[in-house]
Design a protein that fits this description.
Low-confidence stretches: 12-20
Largest sheet: 5 strands, mixed
Strand order of the largest sheet: 2-1-3-4-5
Order of helices and strands: HEHEEEHEH
Distance between the termini: 39 Å
Number of domains: 1
Mean pLDDT: 84
Structural class: alpha/beta
Strand content: 15-25%
């Protein structure tokens, strides 16, 4: 398991370096109420930080006021209940500029490693709620917009 996680982290690190030339900012929102899920989220965050490519910040709830700090490139939202993890991004994965789709896929793989079948990752292309929430977070300034040009 550790070896697989290490491979995923190396893949994420390489993809992240090519994606932006600097650290990829990820926000993790932990709305869960169980110790087990919170520990899995903590392990995920530590793995992302250990790669040296990701800057990870964690919160217990999404902010409702305009965001004044630097925006994030991806937001992982772990709702209280349900089988899903929502991966919020500046757009559907097929519309992100290269090589951001590789970073997106790496984040999906990392969540799958941390949670197994307990949670499934849903993105903007999978769920209308995720797409609309991503747009809302972009308007608040929490999630950065990415242009293809």
């Amino acid at each position: 398991m550790r070896r697989r996680m290490a491979c995923v982290m190396v893949t994420l690190a390489l993809a992240g370096l090519f994606a932006v030339g600097q650290q990829v900012r990820v926000l993790i929102v932990d709305e869960t109420t169980t110790i087990e899920e919170s520990l899995r989220i903590q392990a995920l965050a530590r793995g992302l930080r250990a790669s040296g490519v990701f800057t990870v910040k964690a919160m217990l709830a999404l902010p409702t006021e305009p965001w004044t700090d630097e925006p994030f490139l991806f937001v992982l939202l772990f709702p209280v209940q349900g089988p899903y993890v929502w991966l919020l991004s500046p757009g559907p994965v097929q519309h992100l500029p290269d090589p951001l789709p590789a970073v997106y896929t790496g984040l999906v793989d990392a969540v799958s490693q941390a949670f197994g079948a307990a949670r499934q990752v849903r993105g903007s292309a999978d769920d209308l709620y995720v797409f609309l929430l991503s747009l809302h977070l972009q308007r608040l300034g929490l999630l950065v917009g990415v242009s293809a040009g």
